[in-house]
Amino acid sequence: MAETTRRAFVCGHPVAHSRSPVIHNYWLRQLGLAGSYEKIDVPPDEFGSFLRDFQRMGFVGGNVTLPHKAAAFALASETDEAARLIGAVNTLWVESGKIRGANTDAPGFLANLDDRAPQWRRARAATVLGAGGAARAVVYALKASGMETVRIVNRTAAKAAELAEGFAPGPIAREWNTLPSLLRETDLLVNATSLGMGTGSGPEIDLAAMPAHAVVADIVYIPLETPLLRNARARGLTTVDGLGMLLHQAVPGFARWFGKRPQVTEELRQLVIADLGAGK
Ligand code: NAP
Questions:
Q1: Contact (Cβ atoms closer than 8 angstroms) between residue 21 and residue 54
Q2: What would the pLDDT profile of 260-280 be if each residue is shown by its tens digit?
Q3: Closest Cα to atom 43 of ligand 1
Q4: Of all residues in the chain, what percent carry a pLDDT higher than 90?
Q5: β-strand 98-102 against 91-95: which pairing, if any?
Q6: Residues catalogued as catalytic
Q7: Distance between CA 165 and CA 170 in Å, rounded?
Q8: Contact between 244 and 264 (Cβ < 8 Å)
Q9: Ligand 1, closest atom to CA 246?
Q10: Whole-model pTM above 0.70?
Q11: pLDDT of residue 198
């Protein structure tokens, strides 16, 4: 009997820049599965009808990217704990006729740290830069991992306070100008701002006070080595770039849609780096 060809999507607006098709189509080829993963540009006012129609269009589920993550959370019938606490869904699938949603950014972030710098598990104090959507996922992940101290520092202090409050008890908001002293007591520093992305620049963060065992992670992956990571590497600190988070967050969705759990390999990483370099 012919194997059913399963189809999954990534929807966003815009969506042309998404690297997710490179990742999922690589896994489909690797695992010899008949299936496809397609980019679909869905404007915000059409997202609700897209959610109602995607099964009729022949899709088993897909990824949701900006600006639809909060709408996907609001519209999915059931969501996982990460999605509920982060308030955003990036992975959709159908189960018992209902649209289910998950947030895989948080487990993807942790899986990447485990992969690239497993010693981070000994960290007791983390400092997170940023208070946007990605920072929410990082703070949730660190709290769920049992991190003793999580501090949030953001350019707009009120947003850091709001984020900390949303995850109380635990995370603490601190002012940007306290960073030099915070970093002295930071085992894990995570940049979850868009600082360092593309050619954009921003305030340089002085890492001089960080302990020698500290891990510095950036969730920005264009460029792969951000100014923060370059600075950390020059100081001999362990660095983790943001590309692995993108690769690892894709694993649970693929497993749901296509029925096999794929591996994040060096070959896949190099494939995506080449695609980023091509700048398509
Ligand atoms: P967002 O909701 O728009 O939040 C942006 C954050 O960056 C805010 O905290 C903002 O501070 C801060 N920021 C922007 N420019 C800054 C500057 N010049 N100086 C200091 N802070 C600045 O964006 P997001 O969705 O959280 O995404 C943040 C970054 O994470 C993006 O680069 C995105 O590509 C990346 N990301 C990566 C992955 C991955 O898989 N690796 C996943 C998700 C996101 P204010 O509040 O003061 O504006």
A1: no
A2: 999 999 999 999 999 998 765
A3: 134
A4: 92
A5: antiparallel
A6: 69
A7: 9
A8: yes
A9: 40
A10: yes
A11: 65
Ligand 1 neighbourhood includes 110 CB (under 6 angstroms): no
d(CA 276, CA 22): 10
Reported as a single tens digit per residue, the pLDDT across 69-78 is: 999 999 999 9
Distance 206 CA to ligand 1 centre (A): 19
